[in-house]
From TrEMBL, chain A:
<feature type="transmembrane region" description="Helical">
    <location>
        <begin position="106"/>
        <end position="128"/>
    </location>
</feature>
<keyword id="KW-1133">Transmembrane helix</keyword>
<dbReference type="Pfam" id="PF02361">
    <property type="entry name" value="CbiQ"/>
</dbReference>
<dbReference type="InterPro" id="IPR003339">
    <property type="entry name" value="ABC/ECF_trnsptr_transmembrane"/>
</dbReference>
<feature type="transmembrane region" description="Helical">
    <location>
        <begin position="21"/>
        <end position="38"/>
    </location>
</feature>
<keyword id="KW-0472">Membrane</keyword>
<feature type="transmembrane region" description="Helical">
    <location>
        <begin position="149"/>
        <end position="167"/>
    </location>
</feature>
<comment type="function">
    <text>Transmembrane (T) component of an energy-coupling factor (ECF) ABC-transporter complex. Unlike classic ABC transporters this ECF transporter provides the energy necessary to transport a number of different substrates.</text>
</comment>
<dbReference type="InterPro" id="IPR024919">
    <property type="entry name" value="EcfT"/>
</dbReference>
From TrEMBL, chain B:
<protein>
    <recommendedName>
        <fullName>Energy-coupling factor transporter ATP-binding protein EcfA2</fullName>
        <ecNumber>7.-.-.-</ecNumber>
    </recommendedName>
</protein>
<dbReference type="GO" id="GO:0005524">
    <property type="term" value="F:ATP binding"/>
</dbReference>
<comment type="subunit">
    <text>Forms a stable energy-coupling factor (ECF) transporter complex composed of 2 membrane-embedded substrate-binding proteins (S component), 2 ATP-binding proteins (A component) and 2 transmembrane proteins (T component).</text>
</comment>
<dbReference type="InterPro" id="IPR030946">
    <property type="entry name" value="EcfA2"/>
</dbReference>
<keyword id="KW-1003">Cell membrane</keyword>
<dbReference type="InterPro" id="IPR050095">
    <property type="entry name" value="ECF_ABC_transporter_ATP-bd"/>
</dbReference>
<dbReference type="InterPro" id="IPR017871">
    <property type="entry name" value="ABC_transporter-like_CS"/>
</dbReference>
<keyword id="KW-0067">ATP-binding</keyword>
<feature type="domain" description="ABC transporter">
    <location>
        <begin position="3"/>
        <end position="246"/>
    </location>
</feature>
Length: 264, 291
């Protein structure tokens, strides 16, 4: 449980930390889009160099980013294996029934792997350098135009910030209840599959009960302090677009041009 | 069952930038059939220490021996099960662990896990429900229909149903009303005296320490800073104050009387001791007057 990096902020005062969360959010999403422009070595090297530069600028050790890959490693391996065994075209190295290993398949597998790692590194960078509250504030202000077409942006942002806020709380609660049930003789993650599924019940039911109680308490506390929806609500944190953010956006425009030029 | 802890260190999330040392060189002994209170500030490492006692955490270095089970950093998780069978653990706000459809089933959950048959487990559950003072009428109800105090009793019965030899209590009376608190502490005292359970209690209530414990361990910043009897710990109000700990009500009252010139030989811990000492003094004085 402790090893989950998603949604975990590391305090710091680096160039990346100081960027406007709106810029970081937008550029992270934009990055995921342009990763799909990459289709040869030059483009991947360029992207990797850029990500490494950002990581360097964030003053956070690379180890954290590598750990961020770990929870998704099975998904990545699965996709990579699909690429290796089910691609067609190019020189065939090995064939057995529906499985073929070709040089293009191998190359694609490497690219898919790189794509995953780049995307994970970039989104880890966002969550490590931006507090959850900044992320949801940023999202709210990016989505603001959608209020024109009656999208409940304030509510979505509030739900998001509450959800993010309660991730650590729920994880603590999970550890606590797991410990309590372990002390009563439950062995999580041991025994047959049926047994393992059964062992989740004594964990899930108390978690649901406490989440509902917590939600009710939270709603009461918010209403008691005068919350009445997003309309006309002022903000405690001001978001400022600075020169660095503009530079970041320009960098990404140049990058896009370079990618289009380099891709084959 | 006795507990022996030697040079135990524990580091949370060791090897990451979040690593945080919770226990430093903790060595202590808890004898069989004793009532030990562990006191100290929030964050002093009490809860971390407790979690070692039934193998929820393994020491980063050092060792812990419960009877013949020695737990070190290398102990395999499978071997911890045997330890858990003997050590019952009542967590803070234990009512959070309830999940079954009926009170009876919830209490019978632990014995079933430890290999008792359904009938045996239910027999134990009925017995334990009685022991913690739950009326028969609630046994077939859902635990979520009960009041907070009753839910806590169900949870405690669920732990006692494991028939442990050591009972670990982490602030078992937090959030209860004064009557519930007294009833619960009296119940643990009965278990200690009648069923000869070794009890380890973490508490902020100095009154409970004075009234029930025969061994006190004081923790601060992950270290044991005192390990002795209640009478000795509470005989030094200055030291307690320096470590941000209070006195039991009775002792505080006696300390004030002492400042007014009442000559206590030793500071009393309980109301009974206070009354006895005062009576003695009055008798002596009375004797003096008559003579």
């Amino acid at each position: 449980m402790d090893k989950m990096l998603l949604g975990r902020y590391i305090n710091g005062d680096s160039l990346i930390h100081r960027m406007d969360p709106r810029a970081k959010l937008f550029l992270s999403f934009y990055f995921i889009v342009i990763v799909f422009l990459c289709n040869n070595w030059q483009t991947y090297v360029l992207m990797a160099a850029l990500v490494l530069l950002f990581i360097k600028l964030s003053d956070i050790s690379l180890g954290f980013f590598i750990k961020g890959v770990r929870p998704l490693i099975w998904l990545i391996l699965f996709t990579v294996l699909l690429q290796i065994f089910f691609s067609s075209g190019g020189n065939v190295y090995w064939q057995w029934g529906p499985f073929t290993v070709t040089d293009r398949g191998l190359l694609n597998a490497v690219f898919v792997f790189c794509r995953f790692v780049l995307i994970i590194f970039m989104s880890t960078l966002l969550t490590l350098t931006t507090t959850p509250i900044e992320i949801s504030d940023g999202l709210e202000s990016l989505l603001k135009p959608l209020t024109k077409i009656k999208v409940p942006v304030y509510e979505i942002a509030l739900m998001l910030s509450i959800a993010l806020r309660f991730v650590p709380t729920l994880m603590d609660e999970t550890t606590k209840i797991m410990n309590a049930q372990r002390a009563r003789g439950v062995n999580f993650g041991e025994g047959s599959l049926i047994k393992q599924i059964k062992s989740v019940i004594p964990l899930l039911i108390p978690l649901f009960v406490s989440s509902f109680n917590r939600a009710e308490d939270l709603a009461t506390a918010m209403e008691a302090r005068g919350y009445h929806g997003g309309e006309g609500r002022t903000k405690y944190r001001k978001q400022e677009w600075k020169q660095n953010d503009t530079i970041g956006v320009i960098l990404f425009i140049v990058l896009t041009a370079a990618l289009i030029f380099l891709r084959s | 069952m006795s507990i022996h802890i030697e040079k135990l260190n524990y580091v949370y999330q060791s090897g990451t930038p979040f690593s945080h040392r919770a226990l430093t060189d903790v060595s202590l002994d808890i004898a069989d059939n004793t009532y030990t209170a562990i006191i100290g500030h929030t964050g002093s490492g009490k809860s971390t220490l407790l979690q070692h006692l039934n193998g929820l955490l393994k020491p980063t270095s050092g060792s812990l021996t419960v009877e013949n089970n020695k737990i070190t950093a290398e102990t395999k998780n499978k071997e911890l099960n045997d330890l858990r069978r003997h050590v019952g653990f009542v967590f803070q706000f234990p009512e959070a662990q309830l999940f079954e459809e009926t009170v009876l089933k919830d209490i019978a959950f632990a014995p079933k896990n430890f290999g008792k048959s359904d009938e045996e487990a239910e027999q134990i559950a009925v017995k334990m429900a009685k022991l913690v003072g739950l009326p028969d009428s609630v046994l077939q109800k859902s635990p979520f229909e009960l009041s907070g105090g009753q839910m806590r009793r169900v949870a405690i019965a669920g732990v006692l149903a494991m028939e442990p030899q050591i009972l670990v209590l982490d602030e078992p009376t937090a959030g209860l009303d004064p009557k519930g608190r007294l009833e619960m502490m009296e119940m643990f005292d009965r278990l200690h005296k009648e069923q000869h359970l070794t009890i380890i209690l973490v508490t902020h209530q100095m009154n409970d320490v004075a009234n029930y414990a025969d061994h006190v361990i004081v923790m601060e910043k992950g270290r044991v800073i005192a390990d002795s009897q209640p009478a000795e710990i509470f005989s030094d109000p200055e030291w307690l104050k320096a470590h941000h700990l209070g006195l039991p009500q009775t002792t505080a009252f006696a300390a004030k009387l002492q400042q007014q010139g009442v000559p206590f030989k030793t500071l009393p811990l309980t109301e009974a001791q206070l009354a006895a000492q005062l009576a003695d003094m009055m008798n002596e004085q009375g004797g003096g007057l008559r003579g």
